[in-house]
Design brief:
203 residues; mainly alpha; 7 helices; 0% strand
Amino acid sequence: MLNILLNELLGAVLQLLLFALLPFVWWCITARKKTGFFRWVGFRRVTHPQPLTGTILMTAGAAALYTLLTYLCISRISHAITTAGSQFAGLGIKAVPAALAYAYIRTGLAEETVFRGFLLKRIGNRFGFATGNLIQAVLFGLLHGLPFGMVTHNILVTVLLTLLPGAFGWYQGWLNEKRCGGSILPSWLLHGTMNFIVTCLSL
């Protein structure tokens, strides 16, 4: 199990560095003298002037609906096709540390840095929040749906697994920018937790 953890940590760090490369280069060219990189992509303290209860209830409802609909879509896919976290299937509780690295670093942190930290903020600053959030959500959806399309050749599954992550990506962008003061910490926590739960279900 130690080898699995070390391999997952290495893979997670490499994927994070790969995903962060474009944002980092862009920051070096355009904003290095104005602000630090981590703040530029949204690693900042969460501010939440609205009632917290409403945000928690909305987020729990959105996460539950997304999980249910995604499960129904995934259930139509052949078991021979791997899905998120399936590399840990059947490994048991000893794989939990590796699953944490996968959920919170390889997928959660890497994807949030690019989509909600880089694309949404840069496009939003230029063309407005609505445009930025829509574009990052569409690209986020395509990142998840197209691989399934190439493997399954199932148009319905491909469309649904593009629309569902896209819609949830839109919600995550809205959550960060409109409820949490532009911090990407909430969407990172949400993204990682959902991926960890889904992964644990296969252990």
